[in-house]
Fold these 3 entries.
Entry 1:
Amino acid sequence: MTPLLQLRDVARSYVTRNNLFGQARPVRAVDGISLTVNAGETLGIVGESGSGKSTLGRMALGLELPDEGTVTFDDAPMPAPGSAAWRTLRRQMQMVFQDPLGALDRRLPVLEQIIEPLVIHGIDGDQRSAGLAALASVGLSAAQGARHPHELSGGQRQRVVIARALITSPRLLVCDEPVSALDVSIQAQVVNLLIDLQAERGLGMVFISHDLRVVRQISNRVAVMYLGRVVEEAAADDLFRAPQHPYTRALVSAAPSPGPRRVERVILTGEPPNPAARPEGCAFHPRCPVATARCRTEAPAPARIAPGHTAACHLLTPAAKVAAR
Ligand code: SF4
Ligand code: MG
C-alpha cells in the first residue's frame, strides 16, 4: 500500500528575536522526523507546547515546506505553498484548528461558509445541496446553517468547520487541537463525530493534541514529540498500555486513565521544554529520572524496540537491553 502522507527526516527552523539582546537566532522547531500516515488511519501526535507539533502539522499540509527532508503526498513531493499544483492538491488535504470562531467569518451564515471551498476549487454541481448534506453529516440542521457563527455554540461552530473541511472530499485531514477549546462533555461528541467521519470516508487523519485522553480515544498510532523530535511511536494500545520511553511513561502516568493504573507514577522535574534552549545530548536528560552520563552528551537515535514500536532512548536499544540482562 502506498502511504497517503510520508515525512522523511524533515526539519524546520525559525529565526526568533526574542532574547534579551534582541539578537536573531535560529530555533529548530522540528528536528529530523519521519512519519507515515495511511488512508483510513489516524496518527495521533502528542507533546507539550513547544514540542513542534503544530509546525509538523503545517508541513503535513504543505502550508510550510521543510528546510531539510521531504514530504510526499501519494508518493509525489509536496508542491510549494501557494503554487498552482499546491492549490489543486489542497482539495485533498484539509485542516481543522483549535479556534472555530477565528476560522469563520462573523458576517456570513455558516452554510455559505461551508460551501466556500466548492467555489474556491471550482467544483460544480448543486452547491447548496452539497452544503446541506455536509451540515447533516456533522449533525446540524438547515436552520442552523442559516445562522451566523456567534449564534451557534462552540461545539456547533467546530462542527461547521469540520463540514467545511470535508465538503471537498479530502483524503487527508489534519486536526490541530480541535477540541481543546471546548467543554469536556462537548469534546467527546466532537471526537466521536471525527471518529465516525474518518471511518466512513476512509480518511487519513493527523490528530495533534496535548491531551492524551483524547489522543488515546481517536488514534490508531501515536507519535510522542519532545523538542522537535519523535521520542516514541507505536500502536495506540501498545503506547498507552506499555509506554517505554521515560518521557512517554511520565506523560501516561500523569494522565487520567480508564481502569486500574498499570504505569507507575513518574513525576517530571525541571524546566518544561524550550525550543530556544535545547539541551545537549538527549534533549530530555535534564528532566529524565533515569538519565546517565552518556545522555548528557550523546543524542539517542530512534530504534525499533518491538514490531511497529520505535523509541529514542539509550536505555531501550536492543544492545542496552541485552547488556542489562
Ligand atoms: Fe532518559 Fe537517557 Fe533515555 Fe534520554 S536517553 S530518555 S536521558 S535515559
Ligand atoms: Mg500548537
Entry 2:
Amino acid sequence: MRAVQVTRTGGPDVLEVADLPTPEPGPGEVLVDVAAAGVNFIDTYRRSGAYPMSTPFVAGSEGAGTIARLGPDVSELAVGDRVAWKEAPGSYAEQVCVPVAEVVPVPDSVSDEVAAATMLQGMTAHYLATSTYPVGKGDWALVHAAAGGVGLLLTQIVKLRGGRVLATTSTADKAELARGAGADEVTSYDDFADRARELTDGEGFPVVYDGVGRATFERGLDALRVRGLMVLYGAASGPVPAFDPQTLNSKGGLFLTRPSLAYYTRDRAELADRAGELFGWIGAGQLDVRIGGRYSLADAAQAHEDLEGRRTTGKLLILTS
Ligand code: NDP
C-alpha cells in the first residue's frame, strides 16, 4: 500500500510517499481502507519534531473509510462498515489499523470526506463550546482564527448555543467566511481586546478560545471580564512563553486552562456522544463542514506548507484515490 512516511523529522519536504506492507490488525484493532485522511496542526508538530516521534513513522492520525479486516477478537464491528477516527497513527495511507476504542460509525447522511473532516477539529470545537466553557444564551466568545478548521466549526457551535462571536482573521476573504459561519463581529489581530471591551460596555468577555498561542495569548487576557476563562487550546503561531500566574490575579481573578481533545473523549461513550451530536447537526443541515483543500498522498507536503503558511480555510484532506 502507498503511505506518506517520515524517515527524519523536519520541514514539509520530509513527507515522502513509500510503498509499505499492508499493516496487520492486532487484537482490538480493525484494518480500514482509508478514503480520506484529515490534515491537522498536530501532524505538523509531529513531522517537525516539536512533538517527539521515533522515526520512521507514517504521518497522520485522523480519517474515514471502510473496514477491510477485523483483528482476532473483534466482534462488534463488521467488514464493510463505514467508520471514522481521530487518532490512529499512520492515517496518511491507503490502509491503516484503527483501535476499536477509537472507531466511530458514520451514518449514511454523512460522506467519508465530511466524516474525516469532522473528527478532530469538530470534536475539539464541540468540547470547547459545550464542556470547557459551556456557552450560554447571550454569552460573548472571542474565537481566534475563525476561518480555520476549528474556528469555523467553533463559531457555528457557539451560535447554535445562542452565544455571540467576536472573530479574528487575517484577511478580508477569511473575515467573510467567519461572517458566513455566523460571527457577529470580525476584527483584526491588532484590536480584538479593545473591541471585546467596546462590545460589553467595558466589562469584557466570559471566554476567549485561543488556538493561535504566542501571538495572541497575553492580549487575550485583556479581553476577559472578572473571573473570565482563557481557553488556550493550541499554538498555531508558536508556544506561549513562561508566564507568571500573578497576572491572572492582576487582570481580574481569571481562569486559565490548556485542554486537549483526549481529556474530553476519555472513553468510548464520550467519544460516541460528541461524534453523534456533530453528525446529527450535519445531517440536519445545522452545521456546515467546509473542505478548504483536497490533496493526493503525493501532495501531503504541499498540504502542510499551505496549513503552516496560513493560506488555508476550513479543513484540508488527503484523498487516497
Ligand atoms: P487552522 O485551520 O485554524 O489553521 C491555523 C490558523 O491560525 C491559520 O489559518 C491562521 O488563520 C491562524 N494563525 C495565526 N497566526 C498564525 C501563524 N503565525 N502561523 C500559522 N497560522 C496562524 O488550524 P486547525 O483548525 O487545524 O488548528 C487550530 C489550532 O487548534 C492549532 O493550534 C491546533 O494545534 C489546535 N488544536 C488543538 C486541539 C486541542 O484539543 N487542544 C485539537 C485540534 C486542534 P488567520 O490567517 O486567519 O490568522
Entry 3:
Amino acid sequence: MKWESSLMEHLQWSDTITNRESKERLARMIAMRVQEGEVIGAGSGSTVYLALLAIAERIRTENLHVTVIPASMEISMECVRLGIPQTTLWMCRPDWTFDGADEVDPDRNLIKGRGGALFKEKLLISSSNRTFILVDESKQVSFLGSRFPVPVEVFPMALPYVEREIRAMGASRTQLRPAKGKDGPVITESGNLILDAWFSNIHSSLEKEIKSVTGVIENGLFMGYDVEVMVAK
Ligand code: 5RP
C-alpha cells in the first residue's frame, strides 16, 4: 500500500541503536511479560522500539491480543508498521508501562527525554500502576546529571523567562536543543521547545521546583517514582 511504504521511509532506527544486544535482551524479557488481552503503555526510544518488535513477533506467532498506548508519534507509527493495535489514555488506563531512560541512579530516580517525548512519557508513567524501566549498564550512574542535562519542555513564548528562572535554581548552563540535521530548534509534538539544563546538584525537590515555573510544560526528572528497573549487562 502506498501510504504504508511512505510511512516506512520515515522510520530510521536500524543502524543507529547503541548497545543493541543488551537492548534486545531487555526487549525479549519485556515481551515475555505481556499477557493475553492486556493494554500496555509504550514509552519512546530505541529500547522501546526493540521491545515492540519482540511483542509483534509474539502477536504473529502466538496470536496474542495486546493493545498499546504509545508515548510518541514515532512509536505510534512503529505500531502501525508492525500491526500492533493501539488505543489512547482517553479510552483506558494501561495495565502496565515500559520505557527506557537516559540515566538511573541507585534510588531509581531517572533522567529521561533525550528523544524529546518526556511530557507524554511522564503522563503515561503517571497513569500506570506499574512501570518497567529498561536500561543497559551504560545508563546506571551514581548521581543524576553525571552524563546528561535535565530536559525542560517549554512553551515557546516563555523561553526567556523560564531560562532565567532555571538558572536562578542553580543550572550552570542552559541550551535550547537544536533540531538534528536542519536549522532551528527541536519542536516537540505539543509544539513546544526543549531547554537542556545542566545542574551539578540534582536534589529530590528539583523536579517539582522546575515544574512550578510558569511556561514549563514538563521536565525529564523522575524523582521518587515507583518504577521497576530492569538492567541488561
Ligand atoms: C526519550 C527517552 C528514552 O527512553 C531514552 O532517551 C532512552 O532511549 P534509548 O532506549 O534509545 O537508549 O526518555 O524521551
